[in-house]
Structure formats: structure tokens, C-alpha cells
Amino acid sequence: MLDGLVGILDSVRISSRTHGEASRDAREHWMMNRGETEMGPLEVRVEGSVDRALGRLKRAMAREGVLKELKTRRFYEKPSVKAKRKRREAERRRRRALRTRD
Q1: What is the pLDDT of residues 77-87, one digit of tens each?
Q2: What does the alpha-carbon distance between residue 37 and residue 69 come to, in Å, rounded to a whole number?
């Protein structure tokens, strides 16, 4: 009985990392294994008005797709629903490309 308990305790890993660090590391590991990367930092210089800098930041976030990514990751998306969404988006891009080419 004691030998089994020692084996279980040997397999338990005790970490000194905080919960936030552990979840961040797990998220990075998950993203790397899926072939996704984290977005780099968005830098906006504050020249003059802070309101204008916020506007530039919002435009940069929209251009990078940060807001769209946040919306899609807000809730779990089943793989079948995700595939349908990607097909719809690809079809929309294809139609847009045909319109602009003409």
C-alpha cells in the first residue's frame, strides 16, 4: 500500500509558478502545437491628443484582426461549426476577389 502511494507522489509535479504563469505557459504551448502564434505587440505613439492615439490603436487592432479573434474565441466553437465558418469566409474572400478583378 505504501509503495503505491510513494509511486503516486513521485509522479506529482510541484511547481513554484503562480496560476497565471502556468496558464500562460499552457496557452503558449497549446498555440504552438496548433501552429498558431501570438500576435506581436501593437505600438502607437502618442503625438498630441490621446484620443487620436486611441483611434490609431483601434484601427491597428482592426487591421491586425485582434477584435475579430477575440469575438471568435469568446466561446468554444465546435470543429464542425468552425469548418463551416471558415468555408463561408473563404467563399466571401473568393467572391470579393472576383468582383475586384473585373
Answers
A1: 999 999 999 99
A2: 12
30 located within any domain: yes
For residue 89, which of 74, 61, 70, 69 has the smallest C-alpha distance?
69
Identity of residue 96: R
Q: Distance between CA atoms of 79 and 73, rounded to whole angstroms?
A: 13
What is the domain count for the chain? 1
pTM reported for the whole predicted model:
0.45
CB 42 within 8 A of CB 57: yes
Does residue 45 lie in a domain region?
A: yes
What's the chain's Rg over C-alpha atoms?
22
- Whether 80 and 72 have beta carbons less than 8 Å apart is answered as no
Query: The domain containing residue 56 runs over which residues?
Result: 2-76
